[in-house]
Amino acid sequence: MYAADLNPARETGRVTPAGMVLFPIQFTWPHGGRSVFLSGSFNRWTELVPMSQAEGNPNVFQAVCAVPHGCHEYKFLVDGEWRHDQGQPHRNGEYGIVNTFDTVPVPAEVPQVQPRTELNNMEVDNGLTHTQLMSYYLSQARFGCIPIKPHS
Question: How far is CA 152 from CA 48, 56, 116, 128, in A?
Fold first, then answer.
């Protein structure tokens, strides 16, 4: 995960039914591969989140996940092999397993819950910001993570 990915999307979060604030965080694997997935403590290591190639750069894979504040460890499954990003902070876990990690800080202020607006794929975005669109898409994602799709 790049440090630049950590702040703009955190300005607004969404709140789970249990009252936990989740923030859209972009995860990036910049080291290529044919098939890349993401898993981590934020989804209790129970799901493999598919990552999409970045537009114009086939070596970069990305996904956005709704993540609560706190320290999270994660790994990438690249072409069937578990990998950590050596270019990002990482640490040894149990049994010598190395995981990439990041800390999502507690926000300065808890976002206000806005009434959910329904969008359908035929509507124009009507000037929605990137953060608003990502929050909407994350609210629709089955496991709280979505691959980033290149623009058509």
Answer: 25, 12, 26, 18
Angle formed at CA 100 by CA 80 and CA 69, multiple of 5 degrees: 120
SS3 state at 137: helix
- Domains along the chain with CATH numbers: 3-147 (2.60.40.10)
Give the angle subtended at the CA of 20 by the CAs of 16 and 21, to the nearest 5°.
90
User: Phi, psi at residue 109, to the nearest 5°?
Assistant: -145, 140
* Cα–Cα distance measured from residue 99 to residue 117, given in angstroms and rounded to the nearest whole number: 37
Q: What does the pLDDT look like over 74-127, one tens digit per residue?
A: 999 999 999 999 888 888 877 778 887 777 776 655 555 455 555 444 444 455
Tokens of 124: 């124009």
The answer to whether 57 and 67 are in contact (CB under 8 A) is no
Q: Dihedral, CA atoms, 76, 25, 65, 102, nearest 10 degrees?
A: 50
What letter would DSSP give residue 17?
T
User: Model pTM greater than 0.90?
Assistant: no
